Amino acid sequence: MDIQDSLNPAQKQAVVTTVGPVLILAGAGSGKTKTLTHRIAYLIENEGVWPNEVLAVTFTNKAAREMRERLGSLLQQNASVRHFMPWMGTFHSICVRLLRIDGSSVGVPPNFVVYDESDRQGLIKQAMKQLHITDKQIRASAVSSAISSAKNQLLGPAEYRTTAQYPFQEQVASIYERYEHLRREAGALDFDDLLLEVVGLLRHHEAIRNKWRSQFRHILIDEYQDTNAAQYAIVKSLVGEERNICVVGDDWQSIYSWRGADFTNILNFERDFPGATVIKLEQNYRSTSAILEAAQNVISKNTARTDKKLWTDTPAGLPVQVHQVYDESEEAQLVAGRVGSQVAMGARRYGDFAVLYRTNAQSFNLERSFLQQRIPYQIVGGVRFYDRKEIKDVIAYLRLLYQPNDRMSFSRIVNVPTRGIGATSLEKFLIWQGESRQDIIGALTNVESANGLTPRARNALVKLGGTLRILQAKVLTETSPSEIIETLIERTGYREYILDGTPQAEEREANLSVLVSDAKNYVALPDFLEEAALMSSVDTAEDYEKVTLMTIHAAKGLEFPVVFMVGMEENLLPSSRSLEAGQAELEEERRLCYVGMTRAREELHLSYAARRAQFGDFRFNMPSRFLSDMGHELMVAPSFQQPNNDDDWSELPDFDIGDMVRSSQFGSGEIIDVDGMAVTVVFSSGQTKKLNVEYARLEKI
DNA sequence: TCATTTAACGTTTTT
DNA sequence: CGTTAAATGA
Predict the structure, then answer these.
(1) What is the mean pLDDT of chain A?
(2) What's the pLDDT score for residue A536?
(3) Is the CB of A665 under 7 A from strand C?
(4) CA–C1' span, A671 to B5, in Å?
(5) Cβ-count burial A22-45 (b if 16+ within 10 Å, e if not)
(6) β-bridge mates for residue A280, sequence order
(7) DSSP β-bridge partners for residue A353
(8) Are strands A87-90 and A113-115 parallel, antiparallel or unpaired?
(9) What is the mean pLDDT of residues A428-444?
């Protein structure tokens, strides 16, 4: 089979135009991934390009994995099979690889570790503490996003200070400075540093830049509308004299400007790379024309955009359906009910459905209804597997073994499991360790010579040091990651620590087993650590037997036969923040709405509630303006009946003293006190808990 | 000085 | 319900 066979003319052109800059404006559902993979296959098969001369950048690890698989089967069908692959991955993972090789030129240690958002905020809190800035007045998360956007604009602490105007920015400048100092000491890089250091590497080291330029003879960038200034700088540096750069994107689907993404990068591509071939993919293969038309009506209200006209030759299909409901729990019931009946009729499988929402908080009610109606579901995003406490603990141990200057990780695990080392002892130890010019593990084993520590703390530290030293030896002899983890869990007493007799113990242990089997996929510890840090919450494997629940952001690039978009209300979509912020932000919300709608292949349902519990009380939001933008071809489903009781708590069962209840967490018990939302329950296990009926899923029995 | 108990809080979107 | 920070007790 020829690589070009299944392609339409525009796609074919995108595949065979292999010389010079190429801009592919790919509308939603226009076969973008297919085109990209075919292009790579074509380069390798027909143009004699070696796989390792190709650099393909994707937006998520999942997209990279998918592309790798597709490319594998594409190349296998053809004569010559090469068992190695192009460089594929997110900007972040590519940068990790470059820095492992050449990072020493810009002062990045070869064994650096990657800090995620919560690590970064932890370090910011430490920096603030050292500067005696209370985290009451400035939130660490605010500092974090300020630092992040500074880094995304390629501003170091000094440059940032010169731009500071307000007292807040002055303070951030100091924290930023301190943070960078601590981060360097720990041998760690945060997400933004990965990009920033590579920018510096390529800018200031001509030989290295030229090396990579001649290595990557063909560069492909997916989701180019979501690149930020740092990523843009990397692209510009890597493109060599041949200028074989191909970017794919859709300004209509730019939804990450709050993260520093700048879709003018795609609008300026022709200016940056003169003589570029521009190819528009406008035929949509995904959605029915009813869905496509409604989506097009929404997006066309934006002013800052390119002109495109998506078309399809598929039939109109069912009209887009709008459902008005009374409140969020009725909304959830409606969705779950629809899913349940369609599956019961045999018309669909659970995996055919996706429910999309603006904020993660909205998943709660949906989950409850799905549980009640016994419909299997999976949440994509939300809490990452690698964000669970037991997992982060083990990762912290591993990081410390690999990078024994990582104070953050050390502080996390020094008293986990409990060893009798509290805040005071830790601080004393760290001060001494800092002065003694040894790394943490070395300092632990020599801690006898430290003074000021209580004998109890000293003994505990020595013992910990011994254990870590043994484990560290295993890292150096390149024992497999899974083996290291297993030894670690035993030797540190971590297994005993999580088996504390509570009902969650089993789940925690199961999570550790998953971690061990995950680790079996990696030969060396650094590879595993990198994956753990860069694995995003949307990178979870899909399950075809479950309904998918996720944010609209997380749904980008996916498609489903039936999509429900819930919470189509003013102040939610568009969000209240965007309404306050202004026109540009509102246009981004509109794009977000467009992205959500175009995920649907056959059926699209939109719902809005008259009343919604938001920010602690009840809001009465207007239907989203995007609904009226969609045109008149919508089917408005029968409106809700106002529940006959006007009690605010109608969905929550009434609880009285003496009632028997069941909790998924604590088992069954008896209510002994009721105080507004707070209910005191004595459980059969003997423990007494004060629970909030709004959050605890208490079931009356 | 450390560990356990109690109170307060939760709302964008994420590599 | 989870997590986190303060308060309390050993």
Answers:
(1) 85
(2) 65
(3) yes
(4) 21
(5) bbbbbbbbbbbbbbbbbbbbbbbb
(6) A25
(7) A562
(8) unpaired
(9) 89
Task: Reply yes or no on whether A680 is catalytic.
Answer: no
> Catalytic residue at A253?
yes
Q: Are A579 and A588 in contact (CB under 8 A)?
A: no
**Is the CB of A423 less than 7 A from some atom of nucleic acid strand C?**
no
Average pLDDT for A644-669: 59
pLDDT > 70 fraction of chain A, expressed in percent and rounded: 88
Specify whether the CB–CB gap between A365 and A329 falls below 8 A.
Answer: yes
DSSP A496-507: HHH-SSSTTHHH
Tens-digit pLDDT profile for residues A128-144? 888 877 766 778 888 88
* Closest residue, CA to C1' of C2: A695
Q: How wide is the angle at C-alpha A344 spanned by C-alphas A340 and A348, nearest 5°? A: 80
Q: Which strand (E) or helix (H) includes residue A115?
A: strand A113-115
Tell me the CA–C1' distance in angstroms for A183 and C2.
Answer: 29
Q: How many CB atoms lie within 10 A of CB A256?
A: 20
Annotation says A5 is catalytic: no
Pairing of strands A667-675, A678-683: antiparallel
Q: What is the mean pLDDT of residues A238-264?
A: 90
pTM recorded for the entire structure: 0.86
Residue A467 CA to residue A491 CA, distance in Å, equals 7
Task: Return the closest-CA partner of residue A120 out of A147, A92, A149, A160.
Answer: A147
Residue among A226, A235, A230, A303 nearest A263 (CA): A226
**Phi, psi for A169 (deg, rounded to 5):** -70, -35
Question: Which of A26-30, A324-328, A663-667, A675-679 shows the highest mean pLDDT?
Answer: A26-30
Looking at A4, A17, A18, A33, which residue is catalytic?
A33
SS3 state at A523: coil
Report how far residue A517's alpha carbon sits from residue A550's, in angstroms, rounded to the nearest whole number: 26
Other beta carbons within 10 angstroms of residue A371's beta carbon come to 14
Beta strands, E only, A521-587:
547-551, 560-565
The whole-angstrom distance between residue A384's C-alpha and the CA centroid of its chain comes to: 8
Q: Is A203 exposed, middle or buried (0-12, 13-18, 19+ CB in 10 A)?
A: middle
With a CB cutoff of 8 Å and minimum separation 6, the contacts of A229 are: A152, A153, A154, A260, A262
Distances in Å between the Cα of A108 and the Cα atoms of A113, A187, A197, A230, A546 are 10, 8, 8, 18, 43
Residue A301 is among the residues annotated as catalytic for this protein: no
Do A23 and A270 form a contact (C-beta atoms < 8 A)? yes
Examine residue A481 and say whether the peptide bond preceding it is cis (omega within 30 degrees of 0).
Answer: no
Distance CA A86, CA A84 (A): 7
Report the distance separating Cα A17 and Cα A22, nearest Å: 8
Decide: residue A209, CB within 10 A, 0-12 exposed, 13-18 middle, 19+ buried: middle
**Contact call for residues A54 and A87 (beta carbons, < 8 A):** yes
Q: Is A636 helix (H, G, I), strand (E, B) or coil?
A: strand
Peptide bond into A9 cis (omega under 30): no
Out of A58, A60, A90, A253, which one is annotated catalytic? A253
- pLDDT band per the 50, 70, 90 thresholds, residue A697: low
Calpha distance A239→A273 (Å, rounded)? 10
Rounded (5°) CA angle A40-A46-A48: 85
pLDDT exceeds 50 at position A648: no
